[in-house]
C-alpha cells in the first residue's frame, strides 16, 4: 500500500465520519422541531378550549315539553308491542292506499317495452 492510497482511505473514513455526525445532528434537530411543534399545537388547542369555555353562553332554561309533529309516542309503543308479540316477523308496514301507482306504472313500462311485430 502506498502513501497515496493511504491518504485516500483516510479521507474516505473522515468523510464518512463527518457525514454520520452531520446526519445524527440533522436527526436530532428534526426531532427537536417536531416536539416543539407538537407542544405549540397543544398550547394552541388549550388556549382555544379556554376561549371556547369562556365564550360559551349560559345554558338556556328548559322549555316546556311540546309534542313533536309526526307519529305520536303511544303509536310507536303500540307498534313496538305488536312487533314483540309477533316474534320480530313483521313483513310490511305501510299506508293501505300507497304503492298502487308505482306498481301500475312499473307494469305499464314493462308491457310497453316489448315491440309487437
TrEMBL record:
Disordered: annotated segments: 43-67
Biased composition (Low complexity): 52-67
Source organism (scientific name): Rhodoblastus acidophilus (Rhodopseudomonas acidophila)
Protein name (Swiss-Prot/TrEMBL): Oxaloacetate decarboxylase, gamma chain
Amino acid at each position: 500500500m502506498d502513501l497515496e492510497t493511504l491518504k485516500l482511505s483516510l479521507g474516505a473514513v473522515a468523510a464518512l465520519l463527518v457525514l454520520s455526525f452531520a446526519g445524527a445532528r440533522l436527526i436530532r434537530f428534526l426531532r427537536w422541531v417536531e416536539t416543539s411543534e407538537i407542544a405549540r399545537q397543544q398550547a394552541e388547542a388549550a388556549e382555544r378550549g379556554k376561549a371556547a369555555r369562556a365564550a360559551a353562553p349560559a345554558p338556556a332554561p328548559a322549555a316546556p315539553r311540546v309534542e313533536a309533529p309526526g307519529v305520536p309516542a303511544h303509536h310507536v309503543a303500540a307498534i313496538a308491542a305488536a312487533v314483540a308479540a309477533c316474534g320480530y316477523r313483521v313483513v310490511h308496514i305501510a299506508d293501505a292506499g300507497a304503492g298502487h301507482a308505482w306498481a301500475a306504472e312499473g307494469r305499464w313500462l314493462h308491457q310497453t317495452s316489448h315491440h309487437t311485430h
